[in-house]
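The record is passed on directly below:
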Amino acid sequence: MTDTTTDPGKKADADAKAKADAEAKAKADAEANAKKDPKDYILERKAKQVEELKKQLAEAEAEQEVFSPTSKEEPTVEELFNRRMQVEDKIAETIGKYPALEEHREKIRKYAFDPSRKSIPIEEVIVSAIGADEFMKLGAKLAQEANANANANRMGGNPYGGEVVDTEAKKRQEKFNKLPKFMANAQTAYNKQFNS
């Protein structure tokens, strides 16, 4: 057995063969590059991108299959009915709380039962059904009603409106206005002492 690294003849043949292979490969690459148009380079890049996207899509589908259940359970009629009744109850409760929404009941129901809004809270569905401008007008109307109610039911003061008249206070003020200046200061101190 002869070692190829020590045999000078075989080593020269192997070097010559490797050199010839390298030259042939370089020549083939040069010919391939010389024949390509810029369009060919663009098409090659696009083909590589398509292959990468196909791989990514296949990986994403494989991950989706792992995490998604194999059989989707359809809700029963009873579950669907219960969900619908819950939404109806929430709408009725909200309209009972805010009677000004009564005129928008059908539009609210239509929005609430839309499948795309089934996970949205009923308050947000009401706002989207009515619209921001109308909702602001309703809010202002409710604020005016609340203010009127508070003014009608407030305690203290004159319930009949107008200026409060205290006849004794008026008499004291008239006496005070008639006193000389040095005595008026003493009267003011006296009033502060006993009235506060």
User: Anything to note?
Assistant: The chain has eight helices and no strands.
